[in-house]
Amino acid sequence: MSHQNKNEMKKLTLLALLVLLTTLVNAQVKITGTVKDAKGHVIPGANVAIRGSYDGTTADSSGMFSFKTTEKGDQVLVASSIGYKTAEQAIRIEKADLSFLFALKEEVSELKAVTVTAGSFEAGDKKRAATVLSSLDILTTGGANADITAVVKTLPGAQQVGEQEGLFVRGGAGYEAKQFIDGTLVNNPFQASVPDIASRGRFSPSIFKGTIFSTGGYSALYGQALSSALIMESIDIPDRSEATVSLSTVFVGAGMQKVAEDKKSSWGVNYGYTNLIPYFAVVKQKPDYFRIPQFHSADGNFRFKTKKGGMVKYYTTFGASDLGLRRENINDALLKNAFGLRNTNWYNNLSLRESLGNGWKLNLGLSYSTDHSKLQNQIQDQNNNPYTSGMVWIDSTNFNLTTRADLSQVKAVFDKRLSGISVIRFGGEYMYFYNTNLYNGYKSSLTDHFKSLFSEADLYITNDLAAKVGARFEHSSLINKANIAPRLSLGYKTGKGAQMGLAYGIFYQKPENSYLYATTNFGYTKATHYILNYIKNTTLQTFRAEVFYKKYEDLVKTFPTYNNAGTGDAKGVEFYWRDKKTFKGLDYWISYSYLDTKRDYLNYPRELQPGFAANHTASLVLKKFVNSINTGFNFTYSFATGRPYYNLVKNGNQYNIADEGKTINYNNLGFSMNYLTKMGKAYAVVVASVTNVLDSKQIFGYNYSYNGARKEAIQPPAPQFFFVGLFLSWGVDRRDDAINNNL
Amino acid sequence: MKHLLVIVSVFFAVQLAAQSRYESGMQKGLEQLKEAKTADDMIAASGFFERIADAEKDKWLPYYYAAYANHISGWMNAKADKDKVSEKTKDLLGKAEAIERNSDTYCLRQMVAVMQMTVDPMARYQSYGAEAANALASAKKADPANPRVYLIEGQYMKNVPEAFGGGKAVAKKLAEKSLELFATAKPASPFHPSWGKDQAEQLLAACQ
């Protein structure tokens, strides 16, 4: 080894020693500090580190941190916490200990941001802040018999109207509430019904993943509903394939749902047949059914994911119903009204959801529905033979009516993501309504080309403040009038899980077809909503309070002429409390609504509280699942104060109130239980339910005879409804096979 | 020539130091994880792994352990907001998955979904239950011999009512299958996930 080499070796050894020494002898420097948010609140659990090194720590519950480091010189100290923008500070580490204060800015994120919720109840798991009801809630609400509308009636804002279908929201009539599936309007959402008996909704809750019940102030994407929108979103690809069979006291059904192995597509079919003959044989009904209700319903669907991750869904349902019933004629106790109804309805909905790239999204909805009804009323004698009394007020109630209602529509909504999570949305829709009426041989028809354009922006100014601003333009060819409706709502976070909301909007709706058949010389009816709400939310508890004022203008008057001279208003306050926390295993909610409303419409002589509006409405819903016996018990108690009723009698050129009053209070305790078990290879659910357990007397109003001498209470056809059913499902799921093969 | 030698040796020394820094860091982290007694200990361990991960950037394991420790902290503290904990776990797990997606990252996905489901099982079964099932299926597909797949499946099935295809009998079979695989399982490195044998034994005992 040469001298020079030795020297080199020495140098190397020295270098190695130096490296070793610097690491060993390196004095540690202590770095301390606090992590807070922009408002000065501490952020516990934030991660603090020197970039590129492992040195650092996690801030404690008071946001303080302290750690030692061997790093030296110019470094970057990084503080991060989920939901906040990561902050950095350039530091120079020498010998002295260092101390820093971090103020992290909140990131505007969908999870944290306030949601604009004034006026709407969102059901589903999409956004926690607004979650109130899930589809399971609908299936397990006592006494609701899996009818979406029946469950929605337990929420504040909706009336307990039992003599006709529909949602009567905040002083609005049933037709002022519209239903939408995947964005498009549903023309006949309820089964065809006979007078004074409410019918069920056509759609099964299990096909929807989320339901938004808006009691006002809703988005510019929806129109033609003065008081409420029930917005339902159908499920995407189901979790697994299954075959189902249902057997019950009133119906039988079978279905099949097949999910492709790659879970990118699915299809399904269902068929159900309802026949009330055996049920009516056991449970006596007040009317004399000469054609006992029978319903056939069939539905089908297919869904697939597109290559870009979008979704195409098609859903169709066909229903046919038939029934006929006799009731005593109110004008002559020796005569009867025999009312018959046959209906077929075919509904189709095709929707596409696709990402167009660059932050653009498209939602396209197409729907077509056609509804055919044949109704007749015949005056009959005691032997059920047709009878002509010679008295015009009796004989004129004989009729034959054939109706057809078609709706074809297309709706496109474009969505563009702006900076952060703000979104702008715009689009248009075209609806073609075709209606015909054949009344005692007299034919009339109505067609409407209805167009609308809308635009709306969700603006997230900070995590604490969000606004939804929109406007909607509509034109109906039938009344040949246009309107522009502005909408605005705001959400402001006032604390952890707490927020205030504000909503304002103008809503237009064209008059109902029954008036348009008389004349199309109408304008839009109009409602202006003002809503203020407060929500306090934790994962398992929700409290919500809302006050509202709604002004009605241009309502339809039918007397002395058909015009838009009607007016009205509604104001009230509502509370809602849902709690899954306080009592272990018990889920309950309470809602209360106070409503003060008056309107002058149709043939009202002046502003009156309408017959569908009660001043106080309350519901208590209890659900308890007992794991040890696999059984759920569900109770729903609904209460409403009496509703007004009037006998309006034409006297010369004016309608007078010949008689008026208030019905008795409404009470209804519903109960259901579901027992989960296994039968062979099938999962089985046994359901038993009864409405009006306490057999409370329910009066929804009164019918008057022609001369006003007789008044007859409107009551349900039977005080109670009993149901026992067995639902079986066979999951033909490959995962199960895979497990079994592996074991 | 000699200069090159110096440069090369210095380069290797640096590499070696970096390597041993990662290894000693991971070792320290795994010890911290093993000794963690409280939720706060777990969060501290998670934070330590996160710092390793952020410094290394190209290694999925420290992110995985950061996510895993954070997840476990949610079970250790009965009062923890499980959604909030899971949000953080998913954030960390997402970073691990961006580097490597494998049977164990899917397993953790399943565990997170199950945790979030337990917040409100009746209401969340349909969404989070499906998420858990999908993650489990992916975990099994990625590595059918991963014993943790059957462990977490068994833990889940034990709490599913018999009427829905769960119960102790089903869970017991899965625990046995898991233990069988644990007997032969060899982690790809000392730092690769190897946890779960004790839990599988506990599960088996609980299913007797």
TrEMBL record, chain A:
The record's annotation in Gene3D superfamilies points to:
Carboxypeptidase-like, regulatory domain
Question: Known Pfam families for this protein?
Answer: CarbopepD_reg_2
- Alphabetically list the UniProt keywords: Receptor, Signal
User: Taxonomically, which superkingdom?
Assistant: Bacteria
Q: Which InterPro entries match?
A: CarboxyPept-like_regulatory
- Which region is the signal sequence? 1-27
Query: What name does UniProt use for this protein?
Result: Outer membrane cobalamin receptor protein
Organism encoding this protein: Sediminibacterium ginsengisoli
Automatic annotation (TrEMBL), chain B:
Organism superkingdom: Bacteria
This protein is called Uncharacterized protein
Tell me which species this is from.
Sediminibacterium ginsengisoli
